[in-house]
Amino acid sequence: SHIRHAWDATKSVAQNLAEMGLAEDPNKAVPIAKRGLLGMEVESNGQEERKKIVRKPYVLNEMEYEASLPEKKSNTLSRDLIDYVRYMIQNHGENYKEMARDEKNYYQDTPKQIKRKINVYKNFYPEEYKAFVASLKQEKMDVQ
Asked: What's a single GO CC term here (predicted)?
């Protein structure tokens, strides 16, 4: 979006990118040393490139700032998986073999697979899991 706002339609791509301090061709921006037949580096023709004037440095600065921001965690579990795990815990507690035989185990998960799914749920929603287990213990106490 920063490039889009600073773009000048009357200029070429190369001119626009040069004004922003960006490279049009990455091979020219970071030159690779040419090697001779024996593996020795060969010097270039001695032609020095003229210095490019960056007229729109704010574009580069804004892009660097955005790149330095930490990435947000947007991982969530599906509602179906959450319901499945809560149902299994509610009906079977910690008995994974019993969970594997349950009729709601549509995907025929093994006890280890079910345990892994429950652990994923615990890691994603630790507070919700603790509250759920506490409510189950409360229900058992009320029944007795």
From this structure: nucleolus
Mean pLDDT of 112-134: 93
The count of other CB atoms within 10 Å of the CB of residue 59 is 22
- In tens, the pLDDT along 58-102 reads 888 888 888 888 887 667 889 999 999 999 999 999 999 999 999
Strand partners of residue 35: 41
Sign of CA dihedral 93, 107, 118, 132: negative
Domain extents in the chain: 1-68, 79-143
81 within 8 A of 117, measured Cβ to Cβ:
yes
d(CA 110, CA 112): 5
pTM reported for the whole predicted model:
0.51
Structure tokens at 78: 């599906």
